[in-house]
Amino acid sequence: QVQLMESGGGLVQPGGSLRLSCAASGNIFSIYASAWYRQTPGKQRELVAYITSGDSTNYADSVKGRFTISRDNAKDTVYLQMNSLKPEDTAVYYCNAMSRDLRLLGSWGQGTQVTVSS
Q1: Nearest-angstrom CA–CA distance, 96 and 45
Q2: 106 and 96 Cβ atoms separated by less than 8 Å
Q3: Which of 9, 41, 70, 101 is the most buried (most CB within 10 A)?
Q4: 89 three-class SS
């Protein structure tokens, strides 16, 4: 199993930027892809972006061109750089890891709260 810890959330103004971090530990060798999700009250958890071990990336249409997912292998950390933030980006953001069979490897934690408001 993989343990994950999100950090970096906060309050930002529309148009602002924020960088989220996700530190992984445990059986990190089983990770095929790392992903960011978000969830607002009354909504299902949404896949925001993921990055594979081969550095392929994919983004939800709603964040494409504004968000960038990356990783620092030396720190076992995945980042989500969020630019041009909009109020609709407000959510609790979670990270997780996937195996080559696309199974989630981590438990859902507390996430990190992002609020975009003037």
Answers
A1: 12
A2: yes
A3: 9
A4: helix
